[in-house]
Amino acid sequence: MLVRILTPEMIKKKQIDYNSVCVVVDTFRATTSITTLMGVGVKRIYVVANGENAKILHKKYAHKSLLIGEEEGLKIDGFDYGNNPSIFSDMHFNNDEVIFTSTSGAKTFLLLENVKHVLIGSLVNLTSVAKVAASLAKKEHLNVYVIPSGYFYDSNIYVVEDWVTSKLILDKVLQYSPLIDSSKGEFYLKTKHLLETNSDISLALKNSPNAIKLAEMGFASDIDYAIQIDQQVFVPKVKNFVITGKIKAVVIK
Question: Which helix (H) or strand (E) element contains residue 135?
Fold first, then answer.
């Protein structure tokens, strides 16, 4: 059995064993938000590809759900909340349902329809998600794939926060299960070198291009929250995929 970092582009090219455990990572900010929302009381999240699909799903089939998410970093017009995990961490949701979308993370989930187990990973639930992934792999003799969402439409762009988070999750999985790391490639080696040569990874993440951009947009508090390791113990899981009308949604519980 192996553990490997696998990009969305590799999944599009079918370089994946669907009978496996996948951990999706979008540190700034989708998987951090989803983990936090579930940790503070949300009972179910429907993840869709974009704001238009979210609004159609909301209007026709799930009008009591909260609309949460962003496009190009900003809250979508007509949504209840943007993609702001630092805000959610101080809230309580009483079994609410959420329809969620984001620029990259949401689209990555939609690639994984036939995968046996899909978990939501971030720095804020780093240890918990690694333990669950390792346990499933060990119990069911499965490979583990950690998937940095990065820039969904351009796999040539190195998104440091997603790769660092993915590598840290991979390393934790190896602590809990005797898998073999089969990761390779330029971005993997770059991340390994970064982790080996930086004594303050949080500083490196705060100085990443996405962090700087989000801070300039007024979301510095989201970055500060997202780089805190093990703030949450909840591990959200994909339960199933549904097609309502023409809208495909990932159901997370």
Answer: helix 126-140
- Rounded CA-CA distance 66/64 in Å is 7
Phi-psi region of 90 (alpha: psi -120 to 50; beta: other; left: phi over 0): alpha
β-sheet with 66-71: strand ranges across: 74-75, 66-71, 97-101, 44-47, 247-252, 238-244
**pLDDT grade for 245, boundaries at 50, 70 and 90:** confident
Query: Considering the entire predicted model, what is its pTM?
Result: 0.97
β-pair type (20-25, 143-148)? parallel
Domain that holds residue 192: 2-252
Cα 137 to Cα 37, 173, 236, distances in angstroms:
26, 9, 17
Q: Identify the CATH number of the domain in which residue 99 sits.
A: 3.90.1560.10
